[in-house]
Design goal:
It contains three helices and nine strands, in the order αββαββββββαβ. By secondary structure, the protein is α+β, with helices and mostly antiparallel strands.
């Protein structure tokens, strides 16, 4: 059976996209996390909505265009998270730990940063406490993570 060239191209692109997502990582206090990247408005708005679980060594890295006061919320998010805010220098400037899921739609409360930030790392709730994270720790980016726009 012959597979049409367009289908082969599509399957190849889909497979390569999945591989790139697995290749992104960050490191925090010696612990490495595979991360999905959310670096545009649509991806940041969707975030981890509607996910039932996330592997313990995974997270989502949100990249903003510039450093500024940020606030995240848990609209349609089904797993509790630690929301970690980092500045231009990748230094941890604020933490929102053990943020509960929210099914209240637009009535979900915001969780703001205490200082301007550019990067936000969402991990499963409890990771920050487990690592003993303190503000000032630096987040290391693996190769291929794009800078903010």
């Amino acid at each position: 059976m012959r597979v049409p060239g367009v289908l082969v191209l599509f399957l190849g692109l889909a497979a390569s996209g999945c591989g790139e997502a697995r290749d992104h990582w960050v490191e925090l206090k010696g612990k490495r996390y595979a991360v999905e990247i959310a670096d545009d408005g649509k991806e940041r708005a969707r975030g981890l909505m509607f996910r039932e679980e996330m592997a313990a060594d995974h997270g989502m890295l949100f990249i903003h265009e510039q450093q500024m006061p940020l606030a995240y919320w848990m609209k349609n998010t089904r797993i509790p998270l630690d929301i970690l805010y980092f500045d231009d220098a990748h230094k941890l400037v604020s933490q929102q730990r053990d943020v509960p899921p929210c099914s209240l739609g637009d009535r979900c409360p915001p969780y703001p940063s205490d200082a301007p930030a550019r990067y936000v790392l969402e991990l499963n709730a409890g990771q920050a406490e487990q690592m003993g994270l303190e503000n000032g720790v630096v987040l290391t980016f693996g190769p291929g993570i794009p800078p903010g726009h």
